[in-house]
Design goal:
Blueprint lengths: L5 H8 L5 E6 L5 E6 L2 E3 L2 E7 L3 H8 L2 E8 L5 E12 L2 H16 L1 H11 L4 E14 L5
Antiparallel strand pairs: 1-2, 1-5, 3-4, 4-7, 5-6, 6-7
């Protein structure tokens, strides 16, 4: 198993970069969707609705890839291939939804968005890396 290096975790945690989640549809098509996320204990964590396309797909096949990039020169990216585990634990869901909201919406709106997204019917998705690819300062 590959793990997130300190450099990769720092890059993933910087600012409000949105992750692009790749997953597999029921008919085998690859799909990509943006997600808000945090790094927690060496895992990438986000939440999604249990009945969404992502929720159904991850329940069926936990294999995912996530790419986060810096679109400004000199350009960098981190790709995490891994396995998703799902939880509906209400306390964990509220806590993580609030932490994710703080990253993207700011501390002043974290509780508001955490309560909106940390409700029954939502899932906590934890992606454990199996392979990590990094490319920093590509244009240097």
């Amino acid at each position: 198993m590959d793990e997130l290096s300190d450099e990769a975790a720092a890059f993933l945690s910087e600012g409000t970069r949105t992750a692009k989640l790749a997953y597999v549809a029921a008919d085998g098509r690859p799909l990509v969707a943006p997600v808000w996320f945090i790094v927690d204990g060496g895992q990438l964590v986000f939440n999604t609705g249990k009945t969404t396309a992502k929720g159904h797909a991850l329940s069926r096949d936990p294999r995912v890839a996530i790419c986060v990039d810096d679109q400004d020169p000199p350009f960098s990216f981190v790709q995490v291939q891994g396995t998703a585990s799902l939880s509906e634990d209400p306390d964990e869901l509220l806590e993580l939804a609030t932490r994710i909201a703080a990253r993207y919406m700011g501390a002043e709106r974290a509780e508001e968005f955490g309560r909106r997204n940390g409700v029954p019917g939502e899932l906590v998705v934890r992606v454990t890396p199996t392979k990590v690819i990094t490319a920093f300062n590509v244009a240097d």
